[in-house]
Amino acid sequence: MRKIKFISILLVLSMLLTTPPALLRRFNGEDLAVIFYLGVFNSVLSYLAWNSALAAIGNVKTSIIYYLLPLFSG
Fold first, then answer.
1. Cβ-contact 63, 54 below 8 angstroms
2. Whose CA, among 31, 40, 48, 63, lies 20 to 30 Å from 24?
């Protein structure tokens, strides 16, 4: 229950901070495509991939990959 409250507060705060600047801007097709890409692929699919990897190979092996992410990102 605590996590849900925390995530809800973060959601409301992020909406309050990002909505006014977004309303002042006109979006074209390219902008909407980028927003869709970031929303779907980077958020949803990466979360699902991480959870499926966690279920498939276990906590220990997944944590090794997790600590190497800065190396791969760099």
1. no
2. 40
